[in-house]
Each structure stands twice: as structure tokens, then as C-alpha cells.
Design a protein that fits this description.
Helix content is 36%, strand content 24%. The chain folds into two domains: 127 residues, NAD(P)-binding Rossmann-like Domain (Rossmann fold); 116 residues, Dihydrodipicolinate Reductase, domain 2 (2-Layer Sandwich). With 286 residues, it is an alpha/beta fold.
Length: 286
């Protein structure tokens, strides 16, 4: 049995509450032998539901570690969670990577491109195999485009735009590649609409609704001669696919998102956050 350690800003958030069972389910179906055994959280009480670290660990049958260092010593591989607090990821990585354990870092990887580069620098210093991605990159419907689409429109509803924008950006990069040049926010009321420009007339439109009722979907033009496009609802089990990719990382060191792509995603997100605060202005991507 390979033991996974969870590191979080606080436990009892959606990812920490669902990943253990997803991992168990995948391992039962694939014959892999991994389980979530250890956990550590910086904050003892979840602001979402008031559940404490002790209560979370008791519910999931996980051993509570007193420090990141204890967790790293005991675990075979690491998951750094804190999905809604990406500003914590560099701090945690600086403590985790010296133990040279294979690590998955949850989305959003970093608050900006500079921090993303620093995290990868530390990983490379210690020879740590790792990747980070939104689960939407793993949607089965997107795999055939693999950076070669001419244009794409992404759509969804969700919670806060700053947190959910990463899903749109990952889908855009998966379909069109990482060489985006600039972004502009067209609307930022109940619907946030952002245009992303690439070279050679290629572009993406990300439409995010703060209201309910808009599922994840993409509308893709495969090439510049594709006049009709293809509307594709995202109905595949993309979180299950992500869990499979995480276990493959732990098992075989397989990386599904490169440093270059991940840092580009963070650069696009950084520009998008600025663009939403300054509608109808082009923001160059670093």
C-alpha cells in the first residue's frame, strides 16, 4: 500500500472531501494500491462548514500529522490542496520538495506567473516530479484537439470568477495551445465575458455566468475553414480522469501538464484578473 499525504490550508473543502473516495474507487477498479493515510492543515477549522481537522480525519480514517515535516516523512507521495488559496502553494512547496516525494498540486497552481516559476524552480532543484491542473483539462471531449484548434468558446456557471476562471483557461489552452498574447474583458456583470487573442487571427471567448444553469461546454472551430464549429457539452467524468492521472503520476511519473503550459495558464489568468477590473482594455500577457 502506498500512502498519500494531504496538505491543505484547511480541510473540509470540496476537493479534500471528495478525493479520498475517488482515489479509493479508482484503485479498486484499476488494481492500484494507494490510499489517503495522512493529513495536515494550517487552519484547524474550515470556514465553509466549521468542521475541524480532527473531525475530518476521524470521518475519513486519516491520521492527523502535527506538521508538514511529519507528513512528508511518513507519506509515499503528496497532494498539496488549498485550491482556493493558491498563494499558499509556494510556502508549502518549499517545505515539501526537499523530501523529494512525487507531488500533485491542486488548481489554482499559483496567484501569478512569477510564483508559478518559483515553484517549478524549487521542484527542479530537488528533482521532484509534479504537475498541476484543473480537472477540466482532463475532460475526455477535449483530448483530440490538443492545442490545434483555431477558435474556441468556453461556457460555464459557478461561484467566484477568480476561482472558476482557471477551468476556462485550462480548456482554452488544452484546445488551442499556450501561446496566447492578450486578453480583454467585454462584460463583467452577471456574465463575465473575456476574449483571448492568439497569433494568426486565432482567438477564444470565455463566457462565465455568475448565475446558475450554464453547464461546462465548448464550441470549437477545428481550423480557419471550419465555418460551423462544433458544440460540445462537457459530460465526461473529468474528475475521475484527473484522479487517474494523479495516480499515474505517483505510479509512473507521468506528467500531463508541462511547466511551460502551466506557467502560461497562470500568466493568462493573471492578465484575465486584471482585465476584469478594466473592461474594454487590452491586457498584454506576460
Amino acid at each position: 500500500m502506498k500512502n498519500i499525504g494531504f496538505i491543505d490550508y484547511f480541510l473540509s473543502e470540496w476537493h479534500a472531501n471528495n478525493y479520498p473516495d475517488m482515489i479509493k474507487k479508482y484503485c479498486e477498479s484499476s488494481g492500484k494500491d494507494y490510499c489517503v493515510k495522512y493529513a495536515w492543515a494550517e487552519k484547524d477549522v474550515s470556514p465553509y462548514d466549521g468542521v475541524t481537522t480532527d473531525a475530518w480525519c476521524e470521518k475519513f480514517g486519516v491520521y492527523k500529522c502535527s506538521s508538514i515535516e511529519e507528513l512528508c516523512e511518513k507519506s509515499d507521495c503528496i497532494v498539496i490542496l488549498s485550491p482556493d488559496n493558491p498563494e499558499k502553494h509556494l510556502e508549502y512547496a518549499l517545505k515539501v520538495f526537499p523530501y523529494k516525494k512525487t507531488t500533485y498540486i491542486d488548481k489554482t497552481f499559483a496567484p501569478d506567473k512569477e510564483t508559478a516559476e518559483k515553484i517549478f524552480d524549487v521542484a527542479e532543484k530537488y528533482g521532484v516530479k509534479m504537475f498541476s491542473t484543473s480537472a477540466l483539462r482532463c475532460a475526455s471531449e477535449l483530448q483530440r484537439f490538443n492545442g490545434h484548434a483555431f477558435s474556441v468558446i468556453t461556457q460555464s456557471a459557478g461561484g467566484l470568477f477568480d476561482a472558476y476562471a482557471i477551468h476556462h483557461i485550462e480548456m482554452v489552452v488544452k484546445c488551442m495551445g499556450a501561446d496566447a498574447k492578450r486578453v480583454m474583458c467585454l462584460t463583467n456583470s452577471n456574465h463575465v465575458t473575456v476574449k483571448v487573442d492568439f497569433d494568426e487571427g486565432r482567438n477564444a471567448l470565455m463566457i462565465f455566468s455568475k448565475l446558475s444553469g450554464m453547464p461546462f461546454s465548448v464550441d470549437v472551430e477545428s481550423d480557419k475553414n471550419d465555418l460551423n464549429g462544433e458544440y460540445i457539452p462537457i459530460t465526461s467524468a473529468f474528475f475521475d480522469n484527473l484522479i487517474a492521472d494523479i495516480i499515474e503520476l505517483f505510479e509512473n511519473g507521468k506528467i500531463i501538464a508541462t511547466r511551460e503550459e502551466t506557467c502560461a495558464v497562470m500568466a493568462i489568468r493573471q492578465a484575465v484578473v486584471k482585465a476584469v477590473q478594466a473592461p474594454m482594455q487590452w491586457i498584454e500577457i506576460k
